[in-house]
UniProtKB/TrEMBL annotation:
PANTHER family: PHOSPHORIBOSYLGLYCINAMIDE FORMYLTRANSFERASE
Organism: Shinella curvata
Pathway assigned in UniProt: Purine metabolism; IMP biosynthesis via de novo pathway; N(2)-formyl-N(1)-(5-phospho-D-ribosyl)glycinamide from N(1)-(5-phospho-D-ribosyl)glycinamide (10-formyl THF route): step 1/1
Entries under InterPro entries matching the protein: Formyl_transf_N (IPR002376), Formyl_transf_N_sf (IPR036477), GART (IPR004607), GART_AS (IPR001555)
Name of this chain's protein: Phosphoribosylglycinamide formyltransferase
Sequence similarity: Belongs to the GART family.
Enzyme Commission code: 2.1.2.2
A GO MF label: phosphoribosylglycinamide formyltransferase activity
Length: 203
């Protein structure tokens, strides 16, 4: 399966997927990395692996529609089967999603539906949670609310800061995302690619 990954920042999740996908038996290939930031650190990481990159700066476009239209047109060049959002900090409209319905994955650093949006680690700590974690879900036009494909859990330890918790969760994000992409691309997630069936808890 051909995958285009979307980043806005450091791209550590994209890098984890790209490294996993380099294995000959991995059922997906990262064919391009798209970013909405020209200075996203992940762009250099992708280029170092020989993966083509494209940047689409919102300020270069008169509207969100025009920005999304350019990205959709560029996507057609790469013929992706799947899109993987990986630290991509922009909401996709229903019109953008429609041609890729059910084929856009996202990684979010909380146990959704708890803590959608930003600053998830501080919010989990403030709420007195004893566990946190990350979620891979299918993307719909809402924010962090599409069908959940898989989750990984980490403990919140006494004295944890948002940074120490983020670091613990990030390790699990990388492990979870590469496993879910492999399963989704191979159609081996429970229930194949039918999101209604494919909820699994990964140990
Ligand atoms: C990660 O926690 C990711 O879940 C969130 O941003 C953080 C950095 O992601 N969206 P990455 O290193 O850019 O993949």
């Amino acid at each position: 399966k051909r995958v285009v990954a979307f980043i806005s920042g450091g791209g550590s999740n994209m890098l984890a997927l790209a490294k996993a996908a380099a294995a000959p038996d991995f059922p997906a290939e990262i064919v391009a990395v798209f970013s909405d930031k020209a200075d996203a650190g992940g762009l250099a990481k992708a280029e170092a692996l020989g993966i083509p990159t494209r940047s689409f700066l919102r300020k270069d476009f008169a509207s969100k529609d025009a920005h999304e239209a350019e990205i959709l047109a560029a996507l057609a060049d790469y013929r992706p089967d799947l899109l993987c959002l990986a630290g991509y900090m922009r909401l996709l409209s229903a019109d953008f999603i429609r041609p890729y319905e059910g084929r856009i994955l996202n990684i979010h650093p909380s146990l959704l539906p708890l803590f959608p949006g930003l600053h998830t680690h501080q919010r989990a700590i403030n709420a007195g949670m004893r566990v946190s974690g990350c979620t891979v879900h299918l993307v719909n036009a809402g924010m962090d609310e599409g069908p959940i494909l898989a989750q990984a859990v980490v403990p919140i330890l006494d004295g944890d800061t948002a940074d120490s918790l983020a670091a613990r969760v990030l390790v699990q994000e990388h492990a979870l995302y590469r496993r879910v992409l492999a399963g989704f691309a191979a159609g081996t997630l429970p229930g194949g690619t039918d999101p209604a069936q494919s909820v699994l808890s990964l140990g």
